[in-house]
Amino acid sequence: MRINPSILSADFVNLQREVERIASADLVHVDVMDNHFVPNLTFGPQMVGRLQAVSPLPLDVHLMISDADRWAPGYAELGAFSVTFHAEAATDAVATARAIRARGSRAGIAVKPGTAIEPLLELLPEFDQVLVMTVEPGFGGQSFMAGTMPKLRALRSAVDASGLDVWLQVDGGIALDTIGIAAEAGADTFVAGSAVYGSASVESAIAELRAAAAAHVH
Ligand code: DX5
Ligand code: ZN
User: Fold this and answer.
1) Whose CA is nearest to atom 6 of ligand 1?
2) Distance (Å) of CA 17 to CA 13, 20, 23
3) Options 26, 31, 60, 128, the catalytic residue
4) What integer best gives the mean pLDDT of the chain?
5) Are β-strands 59-64 and 82-86 bridged in parallel, bridged antiparallel, or unpaired?
6) pLDDT tens, 183-206?
7) How confident is the model at residue 218 (pLDDT cuts 50, 70, 90)?
8) Pocket, ligand 1, Cβ cutoff 6 A
9) Which ligand sits closest to the CA of 135?
10) Torsions phi, psi of 23, nearest 5?
11) What is the whole-number distance in angstroms between the Cα of residue 58 and the centre of ligand 2?
12) Catalytic: 31?
């Protein structure tokens, strides 16, 4: 079980200090947005490369960008631990996942709340992580969409039946009152932005989220 704070809710002019504050977490979730796939803009490979150089934790890069096939492998080349791209933004998801793995990173595929996961089930061996978005991607601080939980349950069944080591990640609206719902449905990797960086004590927020997830994970 992993807690991945999202630096989307951190102070962008002090990102080195912000990643150093979350050393008790598992990975740093890095949201790359291009103002095209989503209506918001963050940063690109130059910033991610610098984060990779200074972060005490491995990087879990979430690409919310169009033309993922073209850009995703470059983030693996920067040394990111995992690179997750959106199914809606890729034309050849399998080739892109293979290109990410060939560069030494774990390959992840993400789906927006309205995107079905059935086409992915037979492709599970190609991926190390599936990210079920629990809000519409683009912004932190939105409300958790419980209607996405059936997708998580179906993925959990398929992953367990396959015996593969595929992590199931949730992202969006994850906080103390929702993390247990996602854990119970089968998630094992939890992204939290505002619930961590919006807290007076990031260390206790991480510990409390971890305990709340552990109480429901099976
Ligand atoms: C939203 C991003 C999330 C965001 C989550 O599109 O992908 O990673 O930081 O923020 P919270 O946890 O505040 O919903
Ligand atoms: Zn994200």
Assistant:
1) 137
2) 9, 5, 11
3) 31
4) 98
5) parallel
6) 999 999 999 999 999 999 999 999
7) low
8) 6, 8-9, 29, 31, 62, 135, 137-142, 171-174, 191-195
9) 1
10) -60, -20
11) 15
12) yes
Q: Angle CA(2)–CA(88)–CA(71) in degrees, nearest 5?
A: 75
- 171 labelled catalytic: yes
The catalytically annotated residue of 60, 128, 171, 188 is 171
H, E, C per residue of the chain: CEEEEEHHHCCHHHHHHHHHCCCCCCCEEEEEEECCCCCCECCCHHHHHHHHHHCCCCEEEEEECCCHHHHHHHHHHCCCCEEEEEHHHCCCHHHHHHHHHHCCCEEEEEECCCCCCHHHHCCHHHCCEEEEECCCCCCCCCCCCHHHHHHHHHHHHHHHHHCCCCEEEEECCCCCCCHHHHHHHCCCEEEECHHHHCCCCHHHHHHHHHHHHHCCCC
Q: Distance from the CA of 139 to the center of ligand 2, in angstroms?
A: 9
| Atom of ligand 1 minimally distant from the CA of 175 | 12
Region for residue 172 given its phi and psi (left: phi exceeds 0; alpha: psi -120 to 50; beta: otherwise) = left
Amino acid at site 17: R
Amino acid at 190: F
Q: Name the residue at shortest CA distance from atom 7 of ligand 1.
A: 137
* Rounded Cα–Cα distance for residues 137 and 79 (Å): 24
Nearest-ligand number for the alpha carbon of 172: 1
Tokens of 89: 């933004």
Atom of ligand 1 nearest to the CA of 193: 12
